């Protein structure tokens, strides 16, 4: 049973710190956006048109953790503050979704225009992939309209064959310079940039390439064109959300000056 420790409210939702029965911390988010933001590809941008943030009947997104802590320790991720990590069970992942739903009894996810589970909080999903796949199966049984969005650094040996239909892949790339990427993501059992560009899925949506740009040298349009065919990939540029880890690594606010809402 997960226990709520504290929470922080944002303009478009809430972030919760939870604790497992054996005392491990994790994070889950409950956010929403206007439905038009789903068409980032068609609009070639992902900014809000105005201050209307929509509600959970439009795009309702629950961000779950797959681990408590994370062994990857990206240079701008606050999860790196945790010295220990462990994989969460499928039931602990599903329970995060149920926890958020219990906080919003007036909203029915089956009536949301998009109900999305983002596997983007603590942990690398492909280091706990069997539990993640089991959790996806269990959530699908309850919420047939759900969209699963799995973010990975690209672990070597990963099987992407289950990424299809309502499951979409995001690749956290962050730099097109190999040396800089290895510094930002100091986990060396990962696919090369060229290997990432060879990933093909059967998802209803393109694979997202996420670049949290630290400086302009991390972006290379020639390499993007060389490795990531726009037929299969969508490029997303993200800001750094400053925290104690990013500040200790002197990363500032990065290239993208806009801020995520959560």
CATH architecture of the domain at 3-170 and 181-190: Alpha-Beta Barrel
Q: What is the CATH class of the domain at 3-170 and 181-190? A: Alpha Beta
Task: Report the β-strand fraction as a percent range.
Answer: 25-35%
Going by CATH, the homologous superfamily of the domain at 3-170 and 181-190 would be Aldolase class I
What does this 3D model show about the protein?
The protein is of the alpha/beta class and 262 residues long. The protein has a domain at 3-170 and 181-190: Aldolase class I (TIM Barrel, Alpha-Beta Barrel), CATH 3.20.20.70. Helices cover 21% and strands 26% of the residues. It is built from 7 helices and 13 strands. The protein has helices at 40-43, 90-103, 129-142, 178-184, 193-196, 221-227, 244-248; strands at residues 3-10, 13-19, 25-33, 59-63, 67-68, 86-87, 114-119, 146-152, 164-165, 167-172, 202-203, 207-212, 233-238. α2 crosses α3 (129-142). It starts with a strand and ends in a 14-residue tail after the last helix.
Give a summary of the structure in a few sentences:
By secondary structure, this protein is of the alpha/beta class. 21% of the residues lie in helices and 26% in strands. The chain is built from seven helices and 13 strands.
């Amino acid at each position: 049973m997960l226990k709520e420790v504290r929470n922080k409210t944002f303009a478009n939702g809430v972030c919760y710190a939870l604790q497992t029965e054996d005392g491990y911390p994790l994070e889950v988010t409950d956010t929403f956006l206007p439905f038009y933001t789903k068409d980032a590809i068609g609009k070639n941008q992902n900014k809000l048109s105005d201050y209307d943030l929509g509600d959970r009947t439009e795009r309702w997104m629950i961000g779950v953790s797959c681990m408590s802590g994370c062994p990857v320790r990206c240079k701008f991720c606050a999860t790196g503050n945790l010295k220990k990590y462990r994989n969460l069970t499928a039931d602990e992942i599903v329970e995060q979704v149920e926890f958020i739903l219990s906080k919003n009894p007036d909203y029915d996810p089956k009536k949301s225009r998009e109900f999305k589970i983002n596997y983007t909080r603590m942990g690398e999903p492909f280091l706990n992939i069997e539990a993640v796949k089991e959790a996806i199966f269990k959530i699908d049984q309850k919420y047939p309209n759900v969209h699963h969005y799995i973010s990975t650094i690209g672990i070597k040996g990963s099987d992407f064959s289950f990424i299809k239909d309502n499951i979409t892949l995001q690749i956290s790339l962050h730099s097109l310079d190999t040396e800089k990427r290895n510094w930002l993501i100091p986990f060396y059992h990962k696919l090369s940039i060229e290997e990432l560009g060879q990933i093909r899925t059967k998802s209803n949506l393109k694979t997202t390439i996420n670049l949290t740009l630290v400086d302009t040298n991390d972006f290379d349009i020639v390499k993007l064109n060389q490795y990531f065919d726009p037929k299969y990939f969508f490029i997303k540029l993200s800001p750094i959300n400053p925290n104690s880890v990013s500040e200790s690594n002197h990363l500032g606010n990065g290239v993208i000056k806009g801020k995520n809402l959560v």
